[in-house]
Amino acid sequence: MLLRPRTGRGGLSVRVGVVILPERRWRHSGELWRRAEDLGFDSAWMYDHLWWRSLGAGEWFATVPVLTAAACATSRIRIGTLVTSPNFRHPVVTASEAMTVDDISGGRFTLGIGAGSPGAGDSGVVDDTVLTPGERADRFAEFVELTDRLLREPVTSYEGRFYRTSEARVIASCVQRPRVPFALAATGPRGLALVARYGQGWVTLGPPAFPEGVTPASCLAAVRDQTDRLRAACEAVDRDPDEIDRIFVATPAAGDPLASPESFEEMAVDYAKAGITHLVIHWPRAEGVYAGDPAMLERVAGEVLPRVRAL
């Protein structure tokens, strides 16, 4: 099952995951997935894009095959999509692939799902229809609802505006029951309502990933407000919000968690106090966005991870 929220000695605790971007050939990236597990990270994640923003000019490998290889190369660490995009995926194929990776990983897979960002660079590749924010929210709701049904029911028929299927036979046999856990990326009222209904996890970046004028302090304030609104959405449907793993993906707007061990620990403590239970950072790249020193990641893993698990 998805990593459950927990508390440490001070009433807080945070798990830590790492994003490994799919920009290296497997003979190199496989070492990173294994190293993430050896270093003690709780989770490792992949974007689900055909390419991403400024990284479209370089090598960029497909999500599901890499996650399958990662499942075979590791034995403990939880793996997942951060997040699967409706921009170019259909729920029937997504459900079948999720069930398969869950099986290969021995029940360590989390299916992250988002609404499909219009700014990632690949939103119009399969279908160039321009959606309004409301239409994008409608599509997100259909994607989540249908994927949920496909992973629970032996045969599924569905008729929606964006997705249709007739007698789809995924033959749900997830290792995790009743199905693969969902981590849903959402910050608006409709998306948070979906999290409250379907999610075992919730994903936020705070404000948009690369906004102008956002400071680390305002990013933290945004996340604090979002966790409060998630709690209200759960209470509206009589669900315990503490059942949901609250995942914050650190972007440049939040500051640099790998500037020093102290900066990482400060970020972990601040976001745990804001209601986050799972902090996700990026494996340092050689240059450009998320550039950093892998040695600092190793140092943080050795010195800080045990402390932030028992704040």
From TrEMBL:
Q: Name one GO molecular function term.
A: alkanesulfonate monooxygenase activity
Top-rank taxon of the source lineage equals Bacteria
Annotated ranges, domain Luciferase-like? 23-256
Would the keyword Transport turn up in this protein's UniProt record? no
- Sorted alphabetically, which InterPro entries does this protein's record hold? Luciferase-like_dom (IPR011251), Luciferase-like_sf (IPR036661), SsuD_RutA_monooxygenase (IPR050172)
Q: Which GO terms describe its biological process?
A: alkanesulfonate catabolic process
Q: Which Pfam families match?
A: Bac_luciferase
**Assigned keywords, A-Z:** Flavoprotein, FMN, Monooxygenase, Oxidoreductase
Protein name listed in UniProt: LLM class flavin-dependent oxidoreductase
- The species this protein belongs to is Streptomyces fungicidicus
